[in-house]
Amino acid sequence: MSIHFKNVNYIYQQATPFEQQALFDISLTIPSGSYTAIIGHTGSGKSTLLQHLNGLLKPTSGQITIEKQIITPTTKNKALSSLRKQVGIVFQFPEAQLFEETVLKDIAFGPKNFGSSEQEATQLARQMAHLVNLPEELLEKSPFELSGGQMRRVAIAGILAMEPQVLVLDEPTAGLDPRGRAEIMEIFQALRIKQHLTIILVTHQMDDVARYANHVIVLEKGRLLASGTPTEIFSDPDWLRTHHLALPQATRFASALQKKSGFEFSKMPLTEEELANQLVQQLGKRG
Amino acid sequence: MNKIILGRYIPGASFVHRLDPRSKLILSFFFIVVIFFANNVQSYLLLGVFTLFCVYLSKISLAFFIKGVRPLIWLILFTVVLQIFFTRGGQVYWQFGPFSVTHFGLVNGGFVFCRFVLIIFMSTLLTLTTAPLEIASALEALMLPLKKFKVPVYEISLMISIALRFVPTLMDETEKIMNAQRSRGVNFGEGSLIKQLKAVVPLLIPLFVGAFNRAEDLATAMEARGYRGGEGRTKYRVHFWKRRDTLSCVLFGLLTLLLLFLRNW
């Protein structure tokens, strides 16, 4: 499902003294099947943008097209509920949404709301629990007995069980240890390859952006600052620095190396592997 | 969620903002009592003008105050309608069974409406110009004499401060959880009553769990920093009674005298 924003503005609490504009004239395209990363500082409008993707918020002006469905300021809420099944959002710290008696019931909650039978939903729930590596013996436990990392996975499974075509992830690995982080990111990657999901990832982890994304959107203060491939976005360290954005570790290393010693990188490496390859090549040339 | 104006603070440096929170608190309560002395058009007019004057002094737009009335409008209208239908006396305009609309009824209804609006305006003025924690600390200062009667003043005021402090936090949390559950297909405020009640469960349970966790964290954080209750604690906020506070009290005193005079006119 491809997503287009056309001149989207969003104003919180319009026509009150607390009025605040969060999005300014945003026009962008998220191609179907892409792995799009949205980066920007806190307050750059990322969360507001996300909530437009499944109709939790409607634009104050402008238009959003998601596949064939068009959302304008006057779209009725009823028309949006089918959209919520197609676009699954994993919010920040999603473990706060758990409430059912058992893990299995909680995962099955979404599909049941969207019209699956009890049986179908339970089956889906088992499948998704397996997919996110939740051990079988946890499924009948209360979600509140689990560890933080396990709760996170239950919540993610709860969204996956809705079988969305677009998966939106708002800092899905915040607060996890490095291993849990890598594991969860690999699960999303596998899903994308297997089920051709469109993934939209909001993150501050530039290494994740470099490793997984093939399309990057940069927001600043509610405006679209840039969009392009990770290679394009990370090609200019100075530009990133002026906008207070970090580089992936490998790129940072390469850029420092370039300044201090005779190494020349024609194409800035984004991941450790690319960095290592280029270094091996150049060291080879020097003999 | 964001429509509730009552209990919201707008920072500023107006005359009203700079009043001692104790005097603001006392005078607001005093005003609510005084309002019940008003009994005719002239006295309500006086109170209305006075309230608008206070609003003017606060330099806050009138729109805020009108918004403060909105959440309570149905309660107000209900009370007004009761007054209109069940007050007897004067000329009868309309009658049906036990209901009748009389001259007195209409007048009383109007007065009740004014009373509500004025009370809301005045209490909104208090909360708009005074930070919640200031109100809590003023309450503590005013309750201090009750310590003689073994009332746990410090504990009560700590509870009030914590409660006030977490209102916005819990509202944010509510909104977040609502969004998360909406994304999982819950429709809040739609369908039959039973359906709507069921939709509240996925909202309330995470909210309670979150609140309990937060309470525990807060208690731990306070103990880690050596909190030992009120005895002997010095205060970060110290109240100073200034000339403008005395002036305000005198103004309210004059208002009362004028009101008593108009009442018997």
TrEMBL record, chain A:
An annotated GO cellular component: ATP-binding cassette (ABC) transporter complex
Domain (ABC transporter): residue spans on this chain: 3-246
Protein's name in the database: Energy-coupling factor transporter ATP-binding protein EcfA2
CDD domains: ABC_cobalt_CbiO_domain1
Complex formation: Forms a stable energy-coupling factor (ECF) transporter complex composed of 2 membrane-embedded substrate-binding proteins (S component), 2 ATP-binding proteins (A component) and 2 transmembrane proteins (T component).
Pfam family of the protein (one): ABC_tran
Organism for this UniProt entry: Liquorilactobacillus satsumensis DSM 16230 = JCM 12392
Gene Ontology MF term list: ATP binding; ATP hydrolysis activity; ATPase-coupled transmembrane transporter activity
Key words, A-Z: ATP-binding, Cell membrane, Membrane, Nucleotide-binding, Translocase, Transport
Similarity comment: family membership: Belongs to the ABC transporter superfamily. Energy-coupling factor EcfA family.
Keyword ATP-binding (UniProt): yes
Tagged with keyword Cell division: no
UniProtKB/TrEMBL annotation, chain B:
Subcellular location: Cell membrane
Organism domain of life: Bacteria
Topology class, membrane: Multi-pass membrane protein
A Gene Ontology molecular function term of the record: transmembrane transporter activity
Signal peptide start and end residues: none
Subunit structure: Forms a stable energy-coupling factor (ECF) transporter complex composed of 2 membrane-embedded substrate-binding proteins (S component), 2 ATP-binding proteins (A component) and 2 transmembrane proteins (T component).
GO CC terms of this entry: plasma membrane
UniProt record similarity statement: Belongs to the energy-coupling factor EcfT family.
The organism of origin for this protein: Liquorilactobacillus satsumensis DSM 16230 = JCM 12392
UniProt name for this protein: Energy-coupling factor transporter transmembrane protein EcfT
